[in-house]
Design goal:
Low-confidence stretches of chain A: none
Strand content of chain A: 15-25%
Number of helices of chain A: 13
Largest interface: A-B, 30 and 30 residues
CATH superfamily of chain A: Ribokinase
Mean pLDDT of chain A: 95
CATH class of chain A: Alpha Beta
Shape of chain A: globular
Oligomer: homodimer
Number of domains of chain A: 1
Number of strands of chain A: 14
């Protein structure tokens, strides 16, 4: 029987180290709030030594998203590279325990499994410093054609533009998906990623993308404008569907002939926004794979994002399917 | 300048793997709810494969306690054994980041750093399966006399009775502390530990203990009685101070001429009781080291326990000192 998934994702396989922090600490460490910084091993050791005590949780943007898709009851697959070390085992366990198909072989004898040090300020914002380690060694050979061809939607991280071999894997997956008549989606991931890779990202969006996820800052960086309305109209002209997140203001979904503004779900206490965008994508992708209306897709995204910002860690701690039922959201 | 600590603790240095679970899963895995089971590497692998996705956090009963003492603003030291692996680095970082003195050399070439798989049921109860790994290789040579002699109170885990070399370290520490005119405290840790080591535990309590922590079940197991009132009077006769935790009912403190019943602090939602007893001990030990009245010690314990059961993970996520101030508790 051929493999069949709602969503297959490719991403940097990362374990998060999440700790409470302060604006002063971010300033001392020269970390721009709310963004992701790539750091080398030496800097990672120094930063870790300076950070507060924390907790560890499997992360990686696309990994978080497929965990969320599975939590909605969707069938999900993941492609990403870990090392055969303790954190690699944790990452692998957590995806498989969530029911995600994850068979990319670990790579020994190179770097360690990637770690992202996530500093959470009292306002719930997260600022990330990522040591990519072996995650950057994902290659085209790791892209299993059966997985991509069997997935209704292939989902790609903008973060993958950073490590060159991973970017080739990314491009192979997109080509395979399109050739099989499947949908391709991408998240812009981070404003610095957009600034580093604006031209190839733009080309990819125009040529190969059915659905793009972005927040407002990423979108304005992409079109080099401070005018969010102009950026929204530009993305509408570029990609069939754009889902733009706006933090507490919810999200806006743009298609050629449709615009939907969808409110955020209420959250009692914002503890840690790590994974909010990833879980929004999870809900949206699940809904789209199940052919739900775009507005419902966005509501599923809001629901999942609200769950994850109520606690430390980037993946849902409860079944999103059950949560959706309890809140009366259409799950198809 | 000589070292000076409020509390020095010796314990099994463990990283927790905490995941949501169900009563059915505990039954299938033959795990008695609310207790700690020692398992070997093979069983650990099988259990981990069956467990849900989780988060990792530094743990170990006494490690949690000294982290809590430091969070109250106390000076704390820890003695315990990790391996030079990723989880050992996490454990070491988290204690030092909290300001705890931790200089026990890691042991390479043996087992991995200890892991405890903690299954949290929807009622917030935690059931633990621990692979002791290198933690059991703590020896008398690891007990730094300067640390013990410099500590107002030495705190020992009942769990240390399980690995024989660790138990010898435990006994050496107690002897050093007493000889230096310092206080010795112990937690009974777990009802199975009490049943396995009843006689040596009893002898240790009678000969060398100034302060014992226990919950009601552990106390009844110690005195082999189903009558909690009888057990309370027996422990009062055996040890100068006994602090007995009673879950939501708070705690009772017994000394020769004093009895204090102290209520639990209100908790909005019980998420995960992992570390509740450890944090109770942290507050109590901090208070006692600072010569606060026994009733205040118990209130500090209740405060710390309430913080930790409101979230996943066994150590406080906020400053207990600030929390205590905010709640108007006397911190000395």
């Amino acid at each position: 029987m051929p493999l069949a998934f709602d969503v297959a994702a490719i991403g940097n396989a990362i374990v998060d180290v999440i700790a409470p922090s302060t604006d002063q600490f971010l300033a001392e460490q020269h970390l721009a709030k709310g963004t992701m910084h790539l750091i080398d091993g030496e800097r990672a050791a120094a930063l870790y030594a300076a950070m507060a005590a924390g907790v560890e949780a499997s992360g990686g943007s696309a990994g978080n998203t497929v965990a969320g898709v599975a939590s909605f009851g969707g069938r999900a697959a993941y492609i990403g590279k870990v090392a055969p070390d303790q954190l690699g085992e944790v990452f692998t366990h957590d995806l498989r325990a969530q029911g995600v198909h994850f068979e990319t072989p670990p790579l020994g004898g190179a770097e360690a499994t990637a770690r992202s040090m996530i500093n959470v300020t009292p306002d719930g914002q997260r600022t990330m410093a990522t040591f990519l380690g072996v995650a950057g060694r994902l290659t085209v050979d790791d892209v299993d054609p059966e997985v991509i061809q069997g997935a209704t939607i292939t989902y790609l991280e903008g973060y993958l533009f950073d490590p060159p071999p991973a970017r080739m894997a990314f491009e192979k997956a997109a080509a395979l998906a399109r050739k099989a008549g499947r949908k391709v989606s991408i998240t812009l991931s981070d404003v610095f990623v957009v600034e580093r890779w604006r031209e190839p990202l733009m080309a990819f969006l125009e040529a190969s993308t059915d659905l793009v996820f972005a927040n407002e800052n990423e979108l304005m960086a992409l079109f080099q404008t401070a005018d969010i309305d102009a950026a929204l109209e530009q993305i509408r002209g570029l990609v069939p569907i754009a889902a733009v997140t706006r933090g507490p203001a919810g999200s806006i979904v743009l298609a050629a002939d449709q615009t939907h503004e969808v409110a955020a779900f209420p959250v009692e206490t914002v503890v840690d926004t790590t994974g909010a965008g990833d879980q929004y994508a999870a809900g949206f992708l699940f809904g789209l794979a199940r052919r739900l209306p775009l507005e419902t897709c966005a509501r599923l995204g809001s629901l999942a994002a609200a769950e994850v910002i109520g606690h430390y860690g980037p993946r849902p701690l409860v079944s999103l399917r059950e949560l959706g039922r309890a809140r009366g959201v259409d799950l198809g």
